[in-house]
Design goal:
This protein is of the alpha+beta class. It has one domain. It contains one helix and two strands, in the order E-E-H. The termini are far apart. The C terminus is likely disordered.
Length: about 100
Amino acid sequence: MTYRYRLVFSPPSKPRVFIREPRIKYSDDIHMYPQDNSLCLYYPKDFTWSNSSHLFDTIIPWTHGWIVNYELYTLTGRWHHPSVAHLPGTKGVRS
């Protein structure tokens, strides 16, 4: 499957990534933010975006990793990448 995504970055704000194709419905299980359906690519307590961060060694490869994990999720119904629950009662597990 081919994925198209949009990376929005306007310093000093942190980058945001949106999957454009295929259309993906929001779910807490697949690590998207409910406000805008942007991808949750990192745990803010483990990584903070700064002026010295680079898209090419953070956001872009993390986006590709998210896509791989989403494909696994569509096959198994489980998010396989280590994660942190976004909301109380959700399935994310830090490992």
